[in-house]
């Protein structure tokens, strides 16, 4: 369960207060697929940063499972983040590592034993359809393949939630469709998905719950979003 309760976020720029979020309230249940939509600057990325503890709210409370994110100290955040996988628009793959090594890196950071790494990484690559690319470097892969490797890395620790921040922003329509179908598949396996996007076609393809943001406020929250207002 993810809960945003009366969450506001303001930044100070040149001694002026700039509001990024205003009194945001929503709940996301386990195994949901929820899209956060809106123009650039609407508040999507701020919600993600607050959820993973990268930023602190100016006001309000954020709950993630058994964690009160707003009360976690900096050295405690890693425990909560172990339950979250993240996927970004620019992939964030390590260029000097192969596909296998990029996915394995997430397990190495979590200090998982080598036998588990050797067992889990091929399974993750199989799920994203890239078992044959295990020894390829990012420079040898297409944008869609890089994003699928990033998704394999995000899911390798079996997180409760995967956050995908504009994961199709650099992809063509065919690769976009493949990435969205892969996220839907992972969701069907029981992982909560939070997708941030401004792409109307992506929302229509998913046809799941949509939270629409504008100027830091929620303007719509629909169970099956077929269109969005910008």
Question: Gist?
Answer:
The protein has helices spanning 44-51, 77-81, 99-109, 114-127, 143-155, 173-188, 200-206; strands spanning 2-13, 16-28, 33-37, 59-64, 67-68, 84-88, 161-165, 192-197, 209-214, 217-222.
Would you write up a description of this structure?
By secondary structure, the protein is of the alpha/beta class. The chain has a single domain, classed as Rossmann fold. It has 7 helices and 10 strands. It has helices spanning 44-51, 77-81, 99-109, 114-127, 143-155, 173-188, 200-206, and strands at 2-13, 16-28, 33-37, 59-64, 67-68, 84-88, 161-165, 192-197, 209-214, 217-222. The protein has a 6-stranded mixed β-sheet with strand order 6-7-8-3-9-10, with helices on both faces. Helix 4 packs across helix 5 (143-155). It is globular, with a radius of gyration of 18 Å. The model has no long low-confidence stretch (mean pLDDT 92).
Descriptive key words:
230 residues, alpha/beta, Rossmann fold, 6-stranded mixed sheet, 7 helices
Compile the SSE list and pairings.
Elements: E1 2-13, E2 16-28, E3 33-37, H1 44-51, E4 59-64, E5 67-68, H2 77-81, E6 84-88, H3 99-109, H4 114-127, H5 143-155, E7 161-165, H6 173-188, E8 192-197, H7 200-206, E9 209-214, E10 217-222
Poorly predicted runs: none
* Fraction of residues in H or I helices: 25-40%
Q: How many β-strand stretches?
A: 10
What's the level 1 CATH class?
A: Alpha Beta
The CATH superfamily label reads: P-loop containing nucleotide triphosphate hydrolases
- Overall average pLDDT: 92
In order across it, which strands form the biggest sheet? 6-7-8-3-9-10
Strand content: 25-35%
Radius of gyration, CA atoms, in whole angstroms? 18 Å
């Amino acid at each position: 369960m993810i809960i945003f309760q009366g969450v506001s976020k303001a930044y100070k720029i040149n001694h002026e207060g700039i509001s990024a979020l205003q009194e945001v309230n929503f709940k996301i249940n386990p195994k949901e697929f929820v899209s956060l939509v809106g123009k650039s600057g609407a508040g999507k990325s701020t919600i993600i940063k607050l959820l993973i503890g990268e930023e602190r709210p100016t006001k309000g409370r954020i709950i993630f499972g058994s964690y009160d994110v707003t009360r976690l100290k900096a050295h405690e955040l890693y425990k909560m983040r172990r339950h979250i996988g993240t996927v970004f628009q620019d992939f964030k793959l390590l260029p000097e590592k192969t596909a296998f090594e990029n996915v394995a890196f997430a397990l190495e950071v979590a200090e998982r034993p080598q036998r588990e790494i050797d067992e889990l990484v091929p399974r993750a690559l199989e799920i994203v359809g890239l078992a044959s690319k295990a020894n390829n470097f990012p420079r040898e892969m297409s944008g869609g393949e890089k994003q699928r490797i990033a998704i394999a890395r995000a899911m390798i620790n079996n997180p409760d939630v995967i956050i995908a921040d504009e994961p199709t922003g650099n992809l063509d329509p065919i690769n976009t469709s493949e990435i969205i179908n892969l996220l839907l598949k992972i969701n069907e396996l029981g992982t909560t998905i939070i997708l941030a996007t401004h792409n109307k076609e992506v929302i229509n393809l998913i046809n799941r719950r949509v939270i629409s943001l504008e100027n830091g406020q929620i303007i719509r929250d629909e169970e099956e979003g077929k269109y969005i207002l910008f």
